Amino acid sequence: MDKTLIEEMLAAGRGTFALLMGQRNAPEFFDLGTRGLVGSLAAFVLASGLNALLPSFMGHAGEGPPAWQALIVVGALYVLQISFGAVALRQFGRLDGLVPYLVASNWATFFATILSLILGLAGFDLSMVLLALVVGVLVIEINIGRLIVTLTIPQIAMFLIAKLVGGMVGLMLVGTLFPPALPVSP
Known about the structure:
Largest sheet: none
Radius of gyration: 17 Å
Structural class: mainly alpha
Helix content: over 70%
Number of helices: 6
Number of strands: 0
């Protein structure tokens, strides 16, 4: 049975929470096929757009990079992290786990972005929110590898390291394309 995007989002929300809690039934909540990938990618793009516009929502419109630049950064980091992760999965002979990983990870990113936006607008200390989100995302990433892609512990570690290296390469590339502005001395 085909779900609407709203039904898919609600199920993915339950699945993301199940991943956070380490529940073995977490994969049941996600559509881990191509259709689910399209829905999760739409959610990821929406989350990326919200993240790019987040400074404006928070009253910090002049701070940070312009929205278009933030979107390029997110896109470059996404592509490189996924590429490096795909290489690791290929080395494990588990490239079949890439689409299920992307589905769950995209939805987790969507819900983390929405949660950070809500908590930020509610006036919570963003540094504490960020710390909690980092811990939550790490737990979810480990559980995606464990429960959805069914990797072993060493494979999960290597997969996450590969994604981290991809992210660092992406940051270096983006830093080269968009170097930080240097202060003008008098």
